[in-house]
Amino acid sequence: MYKKKAKTGIFFFLLIMIHIPLMGLGWQGLYERFAESQADAESRLSSHSWLIFVMDFSILMCTPCLDSFLNFYHEVSRCPKKEVVWGVLVLDEHGKDNAEMKLLFRVAEKKVRGFAKANNIRCPILIDSSAVFRDIAGGGTAIILFDHRRNCVRKYNFPLQPGQKGEIIETLTY
Amino acid sequence: MIERKSLLLFLLFVALSISQGLLEAKELRKVSLEEVLSIGRLDDDTLFQWAGVAVDPQGNIYLSDAMDYSLKRFDSQGNLIKKAGGKGQGPGEFMAPRLLDCSENYLYATDQDFRGLKVFDRELNFVRNIMIKMLVSDLRILSDSEIAVTSLPMLEKPAVFIFDQEGKLVREIKYSDRDSPLMMDVVSFDFDQERNLYLAYNFQDRIEKWSKTGEKLWSINLLKVKKVKKKKVSSFVVPTELVFKDVAIDGEGNLFVLGGHFSQNRSCDVYVLNPEGKHLATFTLPDTSHCIYIDGKNCLYSRANQGITLKKFRMDYVYQ
Q: Fewer Cβ atoms within 10 Å of its own Cβ: the N or the C terminal residue of chain A?
């Protein structure tokens, strides 16, 4: 029994060893590719500014309250580096048991899907069921900007003050 | 022989009188709900956040969905037949669809910041706008030529306004003369078949009945709520706790009032009152709802899963 398993293992190992050179990689190539992709990712991370929208679930229930956010999002999404935008939806776990939180999570998931589809939002929106970002959202909508150029993190609340929109877009597109 | 006939007639008269008396004494004591339809699940894309509901005499269900800016028509089995609307300010589009009601021919819809109504046919084809120059906070369609609305009292006087199909004001029932604090005179309303008006104040413990000529017939405090919490928003102080959320009238003329923050089961308890304002019964919805709707067959509609699901219940009445 064990002999058979060992034989199968050896067979697959040899198969992989044969296929790596066949795919034109080779061990050295494989390592180089991995190192390259790591470097790419690191370079992307270190040279871009990042932006996270933080939105409270209660605001999502009031679609007109999100108009200024939506206008801003669509301006940002026209930026060439739009992949640096993420969204976080904060759920309030206060006073809810596990079953209620599970239900709320599914409700939020569905509402986010509908909201994103209806408003053509393409950035990933994650659900913060532990309310890690609750104080940042402050019951409304906020932005955290990781400003690479100035080496700092800034927070903005909606509705944005005059000039803040331009400042954020300029930071993202730099 | 004559004596015997007289006796029989007398007995018949007595029997009829007793049965009449029994019928008059019949009073609703309990309402039980049986779920007969559920539209929208957590794992489908049917409804995201429905806001308004209306049902036509054929049992077709119309819903406004605030999350995807649409109107949706379902058949009586709950199958989605058509979706219309979309985000925008063009003909038949919405920025925030809200209230719905229907007449024999048309469906009327409100858009949160639109001063008027949007009219659709039963197939959800846009027909026209009715401009009434006020933001609508509640809506009932009495007929195509009698459109009853309320607006926020801070924008208009506290009254139920009745417009014709052209948006011309036909009459108004002014329900408050007082200079109330901001938002305190906001009401939900409905009319019975005799066109008497029923009001439930959203931020006060007050339910009222007004005659069609504009006289107050009665006013009651049901929950003994003295004060609601208020909050300062910008430079305004506004109430934040709803006492009553919605009203609806069944085919027998009973008034159904959905309670808010002060009810034992918040946003679930429904109080049933007779046309004289006597509290007959209270029942509890299985999930919190922002509104209730009763169709021509005495079925009640309410919300579940925070607007993802519409529930339809058959109401069974238990009489004393």
A: N
